[in-house]
Amino acid sequence: MLDKYGRNIDYIRVSITDRCNLRCIYCMPENGVAKKEHKDIISLEEIHKIVKAAGALGIKKVRYTGGEPLVRKGIVDLIHKTSVLQGIEDIAITTNGILLDEIAVDLKRAGLTRANISLDSLNKEKYELITRGGDLNKVLSAIDKCLRIGLAPLKINTVLMKGINDDEIKSFIELTRELPISIRFIELMPIGEAVNLNTSRINSDEIIKRYPELYEIKDNNKSVARLYRLKNAKGTVGFISPLSCKFCSNCNRIRLTSSGTIKPCLHSEEEIDIKNYLKDDLSLITKLEKSIFEKPEEHHLEQDKESKSKKMMFQVGG
Fold first, then answer.
1. Average pLDDT of the residues in 180-191
2. In whole angstroms, how far apart are CA 15 and each of 76, 113, 194, 215?
3. Could you read off the pLDDT of 98-151 as tens digits, one per residue?
4. For residue 95, which of 137, 141, 142, 130 has the smallest C-alpha distance?
């Protein structure tokens, strides 16, 4: 459906848990998050009901995220139930990949269309430092599994941090020569834990100028990433730049948090509690429709220097 600015909102990101098996320095507090009571977390049945209502309003694409979505039991069944909903054409997940290798086949059979894997270093020791204990080999195995079973297109999300992993940019780009993957470099956003690392942010344009061998390619899918390619490469390189090149005018998404609120804009403080409307389908659709229509026109990160969101990224589905 269209919002009041004429944008076609056809995509919902759903955080099914705020818990994660990693503690990435720009995302999760070092000691993790306080365990919430069952009543404070939206159930998988409620998520299914909201996604069904969203499908009735024109939402075609669903992405399940976290925290880490694969730590929540029932994800395979949720994806299967989502795959048979009217209107839903595309189901994806964003995952750190630690648990993906062992469950990838089941997810694909259930109806998963695509996967995005977060990977901020190709160096074992550095990866362990950034994630505070993650096992790089498990992520690399998950990437290999996804490619072998045809869970594609496969996107690798890399948050760039000056002085931390920017010395690996070329290594990531080189992966696209032989692998049919999309490496997507993401600007560090001033939200949650990342505020403490704000001086580490790298402007995407700096990288593009640094690697003239990359040439821009057209993307007819209106992706939020600017896409580039090396000559004769099998994969692509994307740049997601919410600060230096924001894409609010083309934004087509809303978010459902793990606590059951709708966030029409990632960086707005506005949240709409949708839990009280779950008992009646018409009330749910009406409230969701209003939330979509009233979606803010844009964020102001470039001038505010910090997100207005009351929640951190792991709570809203990165």
1. 89
2. 15, 17, 19, 34
3. 999 999 999 999 999 999 999 999 999 999 999 999 999 999 999 999 999 999
4. 142
- The amino acid sitting at 244 is S
Residue 159: is its pLDDT beyond 60? yes
The pair of structure tokens assigned to 117 is 């894997």
Which letter does DSSP use for residue 236 in this model?
E
DSSP assignment letter at 278: T
| Range 11-316 classified under CATH 3.20.20.70 | yes
CA distances from 111 to 10, 12, 59, 89, 223 (A): 19, 17, 17, 10, 22
Q: Is 187 helix (H, G, I), strand (E, B) or coil?
A: strand
| Euclidean distance between CA atoms 310 and 155, whole angstroms | 28
What number of other Cβ atoms are within 10 A of residue 310's Cβ? 14
Q: 269 near 309, Cβ under 8 Å?
A: yes
Residue 2 phi, psi (nearest 5): -95, 140
Read off the pTM.
0.92
Where in the chain are the domains?
Answer: 11-316
